[in-house]
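Bit of a strange request maybe. I'm writing a small parser for structure token strings and I need a real example to test against, not something I typed by hand. Could someone generate the tokens for this chain?
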Amino acid sequence: MTTYYAASVPRSVRTARLAHLRGDAIIGMWFVPSGAGNQVFDVIMLPEAEFLRVKNQLATPAMGATLQQGQGAAPYVPKDVKNFTVPENDPTPAATAAAYFRKEFKVVG
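Reply from user aminoacidic:
Good idea to test on real output. This should exercise your parser:
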């Protein structure tokens, strides 16, 4: 069995802190309308061990960063983390997990 985790990350934080992610780790997006434009969130999905590394990376301030609200280098802790364990006999575990998370986060991939 393989367990996948997913969470929403503001796009500004993702591009500043997680530029190394593979394209298939981003399974969708959603946004919050605001007066100054939309706050865009990317939903990232990774296998458990990779997700935990990314979550720790986001929680750690970037080297030399000055901590200010709204800055992409500031620490960020995802609040909507979800997990899904794919059955052992599934021939496409990543696709199955992505389909599950797209429904959970109400996004279109």
